[in-house]
Write a structure and sequence with these properties.
With about 70 residues, this protein is mainly β. The protein is about 0% helix and about 45% strand. About 0% of the residues are buried.
Length: about 70
């Protein structure tokens, strides 16, 4: 994930991710929970890259996204 602010490792987080694409009629909202496992500052002070280990995998996402052509 990319964020403007840093989060300490081992912080518990809740995620809301909106997936948007031209072929989707409406955005798909994905919810998740996890733990921050790594934080790296992006070049030129453009925020932080944050790796999050999710508690539960996102399953059956293929049912909600159109097939690639």
């Amino acid at each position: 994930m990319k964020a403007n602010d840093s989060l300490p490792p081992h912080t518990q987080v809740s995620l809301i991710i909106d997936v948007k694409a031209p072929r989707l009629r409406r955005p798909i909202r994905l919810l998740g929970e996890g733990e921050v496992v790594r934080v790296e500052q992006l070049e030129s002070g453009a925020g932080f890259a944050i790796a999050i280990e999710c508690k539960h995998p996102i399953a059956q996402i293929e049912d909600y996204l159109p097939a690639a052509s």
